Amino acid sequence: MLFKAVRAQASLSRSSSLQALTQCMHTLTQEENSVLSLAATENLLFSGGQGAHGSDIHVWDLEHFQLKANLKGHLGSILSLSLRDDGKWLFSSSGDGTVRVWDTTTFKCLYHIHSSQDVGDIFSVVYSHTLNTMYIGCQNTSIQWFDFSDSRPDVPQSPNITHSLRSQTPQFFEGPSKSREPEEQVVRYSIPDSGIYQNSHFGYVYCLLLGKVPNVEGDVLFSGSGEGDIKLWKLHKGEPIEPWRTLKAGVDASTLTLALHDGFLFCGSQGGNIKIFDLETFQLIRSLIAHEDDVLALVVRSAQVYSASADGVVKQWNRSFEPLQTWTDHNGSVLSLTCTKDYLISGGSDKCIKLWSINKRTTQAESIDTVAEDVMLYALEKWIAMPTVSGVPSQLEECRRGAKFLKAVLQQLGAESRLIPGAPGHNPLVYGQFSARSTKSENQQRPLNVLVYGHYDVIAADSKKWDHPPFELTGKDGYLYGRGVSDNKGPILACIFAASELQEEQQLDVNVKFLIEGEEENGSVGFFQAVDQNIKLFQEADVILLSNSYWLGEDIPCLTYGLRGVIHSTLTITSKNVDLHSGVDGGAVSEPLIDMVKVLSELVNPDRTAKIPGFYDCIRPLSSHEDALYDPIVEDMFNNPSGQRHWDPSATGVTKEELKKKLMARWRNPSLTIHQVDVSGPKNRTVIPRSAKASVSMRIVPDQEVADITKSFEEHVRQVFGQLDTENQIEIDIKVVADWWLGDTKDRFFKAAESAIEQEWGQKPLFIREGGSVPAIRWLEKRLKAAAVHIPMGQSSDQAHLNNERIRLQNLNTGKRVIKTFFKELRSLEVAPSADRE
């Protein structure tokens, strides 16, 4: 654990960094097969696999942990195994579209059952002893059943007829099938059309479960599918299943496994959540962020729920839905689980079956005194572990995983949330909303709408240059280290938990919406189009909140009221020649690199000002109000040099007035920078490169217009190049454009933010501007006609974009309280008339 905390929040699952209380006591190897399914009596273990030998069911002796028998007959992977209540019959369903029933004493196949239709894979099979009826969930979206007390054997047929039907249909779990010899003593049954409920779901029926529902007589059939819903069916002897209820678990994640315990239905979902329904009220009461990947299996034993996931982890959960133990011995996905009196048994894609000794102590582990881990830090730890680096195709899935994790956190904390598609091949946006508590006054206006903007993507990190693994949250000396911890995952979670806590305390009087993008570090590709396409979600925003920058120093909190804009460009000068040797052609040709040097020399004056015509024409004059904002900053820098990271006036010998001018040069004046020059060819000292490329950026400020500056820059570059006596060609490519932003420090929202900071930090903030850019903020202000407020959380030493990025734990926790107080301050503000928003 990173930190100990006295507060725990049961609605967000806390992983455990706890050491497992039990050890894997034995491992069984299932030849060359992934272990897709398991079932066990107290003495025998049955396992079904996938692959070259996937059509065999292995029988293991649990006393000596030896292979006892192989049950042959299926022609495809064994997708489900289940036992009759007395353990005397084993039911197996397969990718060959059939079900077999086996005698667990003789290991003989008693019945071979197939449908009158081509059902595809049969993912699940359950048996009701009371009704003597078997139920199966199928790939073709049907639920089918077979009553053993009212059945007639099929007319004898070729044993491979089912396989010939299935050979035309793609199998969900692919693996070579094996033909079998005729089975003379196996009774064959066909499920009649009267035993088929077509289109039971709008997706594959992945799981079935028989169980009791409070205040309802008889067993109820539960089914989960690829659409995400869970359906409940009433069962009657000799009659079709009767649709009864549908539990909505969300359309964005398939329901893959089900378990029932003490009136609660546990639903394992695609993406890693376990959704829990109270079967007395049929309400979704929890959505646990249980795993980092799909939850593939759930079992219940002695009041404990166990879950297994594609992330390779098995977890034990107590009655409070908290994880008690974790097992991570599998080297791959954990695909199946089962229990006996003595063992928890797991099967994985690593072809191994693991047996864990579970005794009275481990099943009562909720009595163990464990320290609760702070929920926000737990969520941050998991999120940092996802390298959501934008602009890198190989990290696209990690970015999507990070977006889905954030959506799950929002939902679990009580927000409405969804993903918004980004540009093709790029990362999605995450939308969320915590709604204001309802008011009883009919005449009261609608609540204010706060839109929190941020980003979950990060800059790449070179682990060799870090003191700690960049994608593992590490706590040291009061700081949290990890890529994205300050920019921008930590501040985002602080805002989310601030809204969640107010909602839980019944004190949230504003609607808090979240717009979190995944391409900010990559130029916000697709962001503006995605917002436009979903504008109804955001168009009533009254204020935009972001926390995506840092304090000026280390000790005094700040409020950011301005950001420079940026225009990134690339200049390329190319020769019609190939790379040449300077000893052969030097002096006889126009050299691209020499031309580039001449062009670049005409971009900046000796006093560091830009030579672009009209570059400074439209700069907004310095007002007396803004000029006064610099005074406390300069005073603090002179009086508290130890609190500054990048400034030491005593060492440089500058005066207060000179320091003020330097701050203005960095914050409120435009600039032009040449970042790098590159050339073609082998880059050795004898080659004349055929092309030269330079990266140039311009930082712009109020009231410069992006289009005007871009046009002037291009015209100036072409004019300078045109004056050269050269045979080469030049190309100007404008890569990224972001407008400047300037807030109004006298605005009511800035006043509310100032008050919140003063209340939580015990001192007034410094009002600062930033030399950097956030592409989305100015655009959102214009598009939504809403003011923006920027509350930085981190210190100047946070090392954002650099090695060893960090945030002080005190800043993160106090930052959350600042945001929480800011939301409270807004309750006294009224919605501005529509005319004031124009």
TrEMBL record:
Gene3D superfamilies attached to this UniProt entry: 3.30.70.360, YVTN repeat-like/Quinoprotein amine dehydrogenase, Zn peptidases
Domain of life: Eukaryota
Coiled-coil zones: none
GO BP term, pick one: glutathione catabolic process
GO molecular function, one term: metal ion binding
Peptidase M20 dimerisation domain boundaries: 562-721
Keywords: Hydrolase, Metal-binding, Protease, Repeat, WD repeat
CDD domains: WD40 (cd00200)
Residues in WD repeats: 71-112, 327-366
InterPro entries found in the cross-reference section: Cyt/Met_Dipeptidase (IPR051458), GSH_degradosome_Dug2 (IPR017149), Peptidase_M20 (IPR002933), Peptidase_M20_dimer (IPR011650), WD40/YVTN_repeat-like_dom_sf (IPR015943), WD40_PAC1 (IPR020472), WD40_repeat_CS (IPR019775), WD40_repeat_dom_sf (IPR036322)
Positions of the UniProt region annotated as Disordered: 159-178
Keyword Protease: yes
UniProt protein name: Peptidase M20 dimerisation domain-containing protein
Source organism: Podila minutissima
